[in-house]
Amino acid sequence: MFKRELQKEIENIKNNNLYRFLRKKDNTNNILDFSSNDYLCLSKHPEVIDAVKDGLKYGFGSTGSRLTSGDINHQILEEKIAEFKGTEGALVYSTGYATNVGVISSLCKKGDLILSDKLNHASIIDGCRLSKSDVLIYNHCDVNHLRDLIEENGNNYNNLFIITDGVFSMDGDIAPLDKLKKIADEYNGILIIDDAHGTGVLGNGRGTLKHFNLKPSDNIIQIGTLSKAVGGLGGFVCGIEELIEYLINTSRSFIYSTSLPPCVVSGCIKSLELMERGDLTKKLQKNIKTANKIFKEYNFIKEDNLTPIYPLIFKEKTMEISENLIKNNIFCVGIRYPTVPKGLERLRVSINIGHSEGDFGVLCECIKKVLN
Ligand SMILES: Cc1ncc(COP(=O)(O)O)c(C=O)c1O
Fold it and tell me: CA 108 to CA 262: how far, in whole Å?
């Protein structure tokens, strides 16, 4: 009975053209990869690999949650992150997803109001769902809509949280943090920024807050991931000391989950050391300029990008283009509904410091062939 139910559901998904399946990636250098979030190519950096090997001296797994036997080299990483982000403290979780879910559900309570950008990442949405707060969605990056919602609804709540991606994962655009911070200050609210795609990319690598020249403050909480520009795995939150102390005591995805393997932690520490120098982020910014030039020549974008994520909207042609790219050893996945709205199906091209101008040309030519 259960089996038949599942078969019916799967059939439904297929009929709606929404079927997802796993596709093994050749992770050697034989493919041109425009799908990864490894913006600074740190996942394969020799010094990072050496650091991971060295971390194996602690054993493979961490053997427990941070509050039991799993607190090994994790505090060194947290000090590094706090220093990098200029905050009083930081706390590491096992993924970025677990960080958003664990931080939001722990901080936002019954009697609070969350205002969340319409295009926020799924892990923010799930964190909001798990919280006991009321949630209102404001139109993407629309500070006037946000203000209207607060004016209309904000009075009857204890705390007000504004939550946004720093750099939006599917569009590569940047949240107006300067304006959001102003609104948070004005209404005595707290601004939570998920800078998964801003860290290592903007603000000399320090992230989107730094990009706007904003300083960390009591009412700003920065979340990030160690799985994108840092090239490893894990997530983190940073802010004031009391925030960290509170989360250690209340955040369920932190408390009730085994901590990261120490070798992963060692690799992340090395990645951050390399990121601190700033040259990798400069290289990425240079490559973004080159990609802007080539993508404009092919008419795939109109305006310059500031981040390495390019949403090339090809609508119903998207999946055909993506398949053809894969046939040509170019890995670049198509993104469709429900990850992005209907009619905005796209190739999510993400570039990194390993790409050359020639690589951008090869990608564009291959796309053009399907379009013509
Ligand atoms: C904006 C954003 N937040 C959080 C996450 C989750 O991070 P992780 O992959 O480390 O779980 C992602 C990853 O896709 C993301 O794009």
Answer: 31
Contacts of 221 (CB under 8 A, 6+ apart): 103, 107, 190, 191, 192, 193, 237, 238, 239, 243
pLDDT score for 299:
94
Ligand 1 centroid distance, CA of 168 (Å): 10
Answer whether 56's CB lies under 8 Å from 263's CB: yes
Fold topology of 21-39+278-371: Aspartate Aminotransferase, domain 1 (3.90.1150)
In tens, the pLDDT along 38-67 reads 999 999 999 999 999 999 999 999 999 999
Q: Which atom of ligand 1 is nearest to the CA of 225?
A: 10
Q: Locate the domains of the chain by residue range.
A: 21-39+278-371, 46-276
What spacing in Å lies between the alpha carbon of 357 and ligand 1's midpoint?
Answer: 28
C-alpha of residue 96 to centroid of ligand 1, in Å? 5
Report domain 46-276's class. alpha beta
Give the residue whose CA is nearest to atom 8 of ligand 1.
96
pLDDT of residue 168: 97
pLDDT per residue over 293-334, tens digit each?
Answer: 999 999 999 999 999 999 999 988 898 899 899 999 999 988
Choose one of 118, 123, 128, 340 to mutate for the ligand 1 pocket test, by most ligand atoms within 8 angstroms of C-beta.
123
* Below-70 pLDDT ranges, the chain: none
